[in-house]
Amino acid sequence: MRTSLFFLFLAFVLQASPAWAQRFGYIDSEYIVSKMPEFQKVNSEMDRWTQVRTKEIADKHAEIDKLERLYKSEEPLLTEPMKQQRRAEIERKENEVKELNNKVFGYNGQYHQRRKDVLKPIMDELSRAVEKVARQKQLRMILDKSSEGLAMIYTDPRDDYSDYVLEELGIDPKANPNQTNTPTQNTKTKQ
Question: Strand, helix or coil at 160?
């Protein structure tokens, strides 16, 4: 009787264990995005945009430096009201540059907003590919190894699904990320 109960219990456990086991995997989104040609294009565009804005701010700083040099050279010849007027003008221009720098590169500035806007389509595409891989591989959860909010102390490479996501995106995981060729088309059938 005990033996039959034991085997009945064992059969139940073996049959139920797949339902208890939750399948997890992880990806490295930085690795995946760095292989995407769209990201390379967006990154180049953002670099150009940043250079233009940085030069604009540097030009304003140069203008302020020129005004300060002029003020120092003419200071002995100026009356007190003229000195105050010049210092006020220099201070006003310095404040304008600070405001511009904050507006462009500050927290929630134009740079961050623009970067978020141009990366949104890439991140949406990545999200769709991750979701599809999760369904194909019957995963309950996929974690992002490169996420700052998640500390992954150890990861088993067998649980890394980054290459599957790259394949889903039609990108060869072994391809050089700086390669300018267009990615190969995905030949998998859609499920």
Answer: strand
Instruction: Give which of 4, 30, 35, 19 is closest to 177, Cα–Cα.
Output: 35
Q: How far apart are alpha carbons 77 and 80 in whole angstroms?
A: 10
Cβ atoms < 10 Å from Cβ of 90:
17
Phi, psi of 42 (to 5 degrees): -65, -40
> How far is residue 180 from each of residues 12, 52, 177, measured CA to CA in Å?
55, 25, 8
- DSSP single-letter state for residue 26: E
Question: pLDDT tens across 99-108, in order?
Answer: 999 999 998 8
CA distance 103 to 63: 19
Task: Please report, as a single letter, which amino acid is at residue 89.
Answer: E
Band of pLDDT at residue 142, cut at 50, 70 and 90: confident
Which DSSP helix (H) or strand (E) runs through 25?
Answer: strand 24-27
Round to whole Å and give the CA distance between 18 and 22. 8
Give me the residue label for tokens 């009787």.
1
